[in-house]
Amino acid sequence: MHFNPYGGVAAELAAALVNADPHSSPAVITEILRAHDYRPFRTLEADEAAELLRWAARLRPVFTGADLDRRVEVVNELLAVTVSRPYVSRHDGRAPHLHFAHEHAPVVDRLKAYTATGLAHVICQDHTRLGACDRSGCGVVYVDTSRNGRRRFCAVRCANRVYVADHRSRHA
After folding, report:
1. Complete domains list, the chain, with CATH
2. What is the dihedral of CA 12, 105, 83, 5, to 10 degrees?
3. In degrees rounded to 5, what are phi and psi of residue 62?
4. Given this model, what pLDDT does residue 139 score?
5. Residue 6 has pLDDT above 60, yes or no
6. Among 13, 20, 35, 65, which one is least packed by beta carbons within 10 Å?
7. Zinc finger CGNR domain: which residues (predicted)?
8. What phi and psi, each to the nearest 5 degrees, are found at residue 121?
9. Cβ of 6: how many Cβ atoms within 10 Å?
């Protein structure tokens, strides 16, 4: 499924932050941002990384909640605490594009607005595209960008473990 830039990349960054180890170093969090084409241009400070990890914990219920009304409520709470305010930017030689926080705002504020808005876009387009792995004990969250929208697992490895365990239990 094709999402706009906020619904796709921003929601995928939100998922990556949720999936990060809660004790990740600032360098690890910075690499997650860079891997999702978010450019802080510097390694995050320890307090910034810690705040993003706390933010990630607040993002998790959007992926794991089964009830749409609760997901919408959580996203609205997230949006309410961000500095979310539409802003057209042309930084780094890029074409004009939409930001939801001023480009000179602190990086943590920009990331909060970016991820909350990305999740809001996905919720409004197709809330079933946000999920958590169905393998018991996994806990990894994802944005389902598959064509048919029937993703149940974070990766083929988890799917295979579940299917092999089911097969073995039937043939035991």
Report:
1. 5-127 (1.10.3300.10)
2. -30
3. -70, -35
4. 93
5. no
6. 35
7. 129-171
8. -60, -45
9. 22
Q: How far is CA 67 from CA 64, 102, 127, 151, in A?
A: 9, 33, 10, 18
Per the listing, tokens 């946000």 go with 130
DSSP per residue, 16-84 = HHHHS-TT--HHHHHHHHHHTT---SSPPPHHHHHHHHHHHHHHHHHHH---HHHHHHHHHHHHHHS--
Question: E-strand spans in 19-72?
Answer: none
More confident residue, 13 or 169: 13
Q: What is the CA radius of gyration of the chain?
A: 17
pTM for this one?
A: 0.88
Q: What percent of the chain has pLDDT over 70?
A: 95
CA distance 96 to 150: 34
